[in-house]
Write a structure and sequence with these properties.
This protein has 314 residues and is of the alpha+beta class. The chain contains 8 helices and 17 strands.
C-alpha cells in the first residue's frame, strides 16, 4: 500500500476518528477510551530508566527502591487516568442557526453517574474547554466552531480528554455525533434599496389601472425606492417622505432571485438575505421567490425563519 493511502486509512481508524456517527447518547467505556503518555509522562519514564541504570551500575539498593516506587506510581496513574473518563454519558443538544462567517455553538450534555468527582475534563472542537464534574451531576458545555459558507454545517469530531491526576498520561475519546446546524447566507454589507414594487407587481400581470395616481405620502424608511422620495418636502426641510400611489401596497414586496443584482448566485443570495432582515425589521410584508419555490408575502418570526432557511439550503 502506498504511503498516502496508508495515511488516509490511519486517519479513518477509530483510534483517531472515533466510532461511527451516532445520534444516541454515548457512554464512555474501555472500548472508546484511549491512553498514551504525554511529553511529561515520557520524561517520567526516561527518569525511571536512568535510575535503574544508575542502580545497576553502582549496585545501590536505595536507588532501586526509588525506581520501583516511581514505576508503581507510573502504572497506577494509568488506572486513574482511565477512571477520570470511564462511565461519563454524553448527549448532543441543539445548535442555533447563524449567518455565514459567524461562530456557531454545539451544545453537549455531560452526565457523571458515579459518586467520584471528575476533575479537569477537557472538550475539544476548534477551541478547548475544561470543566470539573461533581459526582451524580450533569453539566452542559458549549463548543464553538467557525462557519465559512451557507448550508448545513457539521460539528465533526469532538474529543473528550483528561490528564488527571498527575499529567503523565492523556486519556481521550474521539466522538462523532450526528450534529448539524443551519448556516444562513452572509447578509450583504451594502444596504441597497428594496426592489421596485411597481416592476415586481407588473411582472405578475393583472390590471394595474390607476397605479400611477398619486395617493399620499408616508415617512421615508430605509429601503424605499429613491424615485418615490417626495423631493419637494426635502427641499423645504420638512423631512424625508415617500410618495404612495393608488393600487400600490407599499408595505408588501416580492424578493426575487431572478431580479436581484450580483456577481454570482452567492452574492445575490447575500443581497436577498439583507433584504429579508431589513424587511422584517421594518415590519413589511414580503415574499420570496427562488427557482422552484415561492413563499407568499407575510412577516413575523415563522416567515422570517422560513425565508432564511430557503436561502441557506438553495
Amino acid at each position: 500500500m502506498k504511503l498516502p493511502g496508508l495515511i488516509t486509512k490511519l486517519k479513518q481508524h477509530r483510534f483517531f476518528a472515533g466510532e461511527a456517527v451516532s445520534d444516541a447518547p454515548i457512554t464512555l467505556t474501555h472500548q472508546r477510551i484511549f491512553i498514551l503518555p504525554n511529553q511529561r509522562g515520557i520524561g517520567f519514564g526516561i527518569l525511571i530508566l536512568l535510575l535503574l541504570l544508575i542502580a545497576f551500575v553502582y549496585g545501590n539498593n536505595l536507588v532501586y527502591l526509588l525506581a520501583f516506587l516511581l514505576t508503581s506510581v507510573f502504572v497506577v496513574t494509568i488506572l486513574h487516568s482511565f477512571k477520570s473518563l470511564a462511565g461519563l454519558v454524553l448527549q448532543k443538544g441543539q445548535g442555533k442557526p447563524v449567518f455565514a462567517g459567524e461562530e456557531t455553538s454545539f451544545t453537549l450534555h455531560v452526565s457523571n453517574p458515579g459518586n467520584s468527582v471528575r476533575h479537569a475534563i477537557e472538550f475539544y472542537l476548534e477551541k478547548s474547554l475544561s470543566i470539573d464534574l461533581p459526582g451524580q451531576s450533569k453539566n452542559t458545555v458549549q463548543l464553538y466552531t467557525k462557519t465559512n459558507q451557507r448550508g448545513w454545517h457539521r460539528a465533526g469530531k469532538i474529543t473528550v480528554a483528561s490528564t488527571y491526576p498527575l499529567g503523565l498520561f492523556r486519556a481521550w475519546s474521539p466522538l462523532r455525533f450526528d450534529f448539524t446546524v443551519l448556516v444562513y447566507p452572509k447578509p450583504a454589507s451594502q444596504d441597497r434599496p428594496f426592489p421596485d414594487n411597481t416592476a415586481l407587481n407588473g411582472a405578475q400581470g393583472g390590471d394595474r389601472k390607476g397605479f400611477d395616481e398619486f395617493y399620499g405620502v408616508k415617512e421615508y424608511r430605509a429601503g424605499d425606492a429613491i424615485k418615490h422620495i417626495y423631493w419637494k418636502a426635502v427641499a423645504k426641510r420638512q423631512g424625508v417622505f415617500s410618495k404612495q400611489y393608488s393600487g400600490e401596497n407599499a408595505d408588501e414586496l416580492w424578493l426575487d432571485l431572478a431580479q436581484t443584482q450580483g456577481y454570482d448566485v452567492e452574492d445575490r443570495l447575500s443581497q436577498l438575505c439583507r433584504w429579508v432582515l431589513s424587511a422584517e425589521q421594518a415590519g413589511l410584508r414580503y415574499g420570496l421567490r427562488l427557482p422552484g419555490l415561492a413563499l407568499e408575502p407575510a412577516n413575523g418570526l415563522r416567515h422570517y425563519q422560513q425565508c432564511l432557511e430557503a436561502l441557506a439550503v438553495f
